[in-house]
Structure formats: C-alpha cells, structure tokens
Write a structure and sequence with these properties.
The complex is a heterodimer. By secondary structure, chain A is mainly beta. Chain A contains no helices and eleven strands. In chain A, strand 5 and strand 6 form a beta hairpin. In chain B, strands 2, 5, 6, 10, 11 and 12 form a six-stranded mixed β-sheet that branches. In chain B, strands 3-9-8-7 form a four-stranded antiparallel β-sheet, with no helix packed on it. A two-stranded antiparallel ribbon of chain B has the order 1-4. Chain B is built from no helices and twelve strands. Classes of the chains: A mainly beta, B mainly beta. At the A-B interface, strand 4, strand 5, strand 9 and strand 10 of A face strand 5, strand 6, strand 10 and strand 11 of B.
C-alpha cells in the first residue's frame, strides 16, 4: 500500500493558463475527494467521486474547475483560465466507505502569477 | 450548514506540559468526528476518530479526545507533550446521514509549537 499520490507536487503558472492535477488513490478505495487549502485555513471540500460517478460538488467549484475519474481509479482536476485566487494547496483523499477515515495525499501546491 | 470551530490558533508549550485543544461543531444530527495532524512537510494523517460508543477515544502517540454531545465538543488532549508533537492539528466532522455525503468539514487548525 503506497498511499495516496498526487502529481505534480508543485505547479507555477501564469494567470489565464490551464492546469491539470492528478490523484492516484489507494487501490481498493472507491471514494475519492478533492479539497483545497489556503494559508491559515483548514481543507475545504471541492468534490467527490464514488467509483467513476461525481456525486457532489461544492459551491467553491466554479465552472472553471472540472474533475474526472474516468475508470474509477485515478482522478484529474483541471482549472481553466487560472486566477491568482486559485493559488492554494489542492488535496486529494480517498476512502473505502462513506463514513470511514479519509487518507490524504501530499497535495499539489499551485501558484498563479 | 455545518461548521467546525477551533478556538486556539497557535499554542506554545514546553515539553512535558499537558495539552488540550478545543473543537466545537455545529450540527444537530449524528456526526463522526476526527482529529488530523500535519507534521511539518508531511501530509495530513489521522490521529483519532469517533463514530459511536465510548465518548473517550484514544489515538496514536498518546493522544485522546472526548466527545461531549451536549456541548457539541470534541477536545483533543495529551498529558505530556514532546517536541516531536510540534505540528498543526485539525478537527473535522462529517454527517453521515446528512446532506454532506461523507465529505469532511474542517476547522481552521491549531498550530502547536513545543519548546524543548
């Protein structure tokens, strides 16, 4: 069990560019979550998947954000036309059951210049 | 809407001092409660969790937390801290039968600095 992995670990981009992050959950976990964490705050929920179905999206997830989990395994989070306010740590977590412990990855730190 | 409050932003203690970090949540229904820890340069790790049963739960590294339903609280405690406990601590809640479908609501975190 290698845990939840995320790539890249760091991403620096210019405002207006598109970025895509990848999350590989723990293999037997069917639920996958995306969170965003800014300085001085706890993680804030963005969206989650059960297998390949995206079941809930937060109001924080504007239409510039899209997430996919095409085969119920890895997931991608894309941000289009990035803005400086998108600078944050993007965290991925996975779990086996709906109410079980969520295992977090190391995060992708996005800096938008 | 559910929310989680952590009252202490930064706590500074000397080694061997006792620790108590406050956590209050707002939700009237059934909740699951968690404390996560983030050591410097590392990812979030589960410290302990409460789902049901004995309201005093024990976690890793000598930490424990007590769920007091009447106070909507889930405070974290450790009798004697060590320098290696220096980290940021997050309280989180989910409402398994509510509208949140299992996603976690986190507090803002408490940074603990332990002086050797």
């Amino acid at each position: 069990d290698t845990g939840v992995s995320q790539n890249p670990r760091h991403k620096i981009t210019k405002r207006g560019q598109n970025v895509t992050f990848r999350c590989d959950p723990i293999s037997e976990h069917n639920r996958l979550y995306w969170y965003r964490q800014t300085l001085g705050q706890g993680p804030e929920f963005l969206t989650y998947f059960q297998n390949e179905a995206q079941l809930e999206k937060s109001r924080l997830l504007s239409d510039r954000f899209s997430a996919e989990r095409p085969k119920g395994s890895f997931s991608t989070l894309e941000i289009q036309r990035t803005e400086q306010g998108d600078s944050a740590m993007y965290l991925c977590a996975s779990s086996f059951l709906r109410v079980d412990e969520q295992f977090f990855g190391p995060g992708t730190r996005l800096t938008v210049l | 809407a559910q929310s989680v409050s952590q009252h202490n932003h930064h706590v500074i203690l000397s080694e061997a001092a006792s620790l108590e970090l406050g956590c209050n949540y707002s939700y009237g229904g059934t909740v699951n409660l968690f404390w996560y820890v983030q050591y410097p340069g590392q990812h979030l790790q589960l410290l302990l969790k409460y789902f049901s049963g004995d309201p005093l739960v024990k976690g890793i590294k000598g930490f424990e937390a007590e769920f007091i339903k009447s106070k909507f609280s889930f405070n974290l405690r450790k009798p004697s801290v060590q320098w290696s406990d220096t980290a940021e601590y997050f309280c989180a809640v989910n409402a398994p039968y509510g509208g949140s479908q299992g996603n976690l609501i986190f507090g803002k975190g408490t940074k603990l600095s332990v002086k050797p």
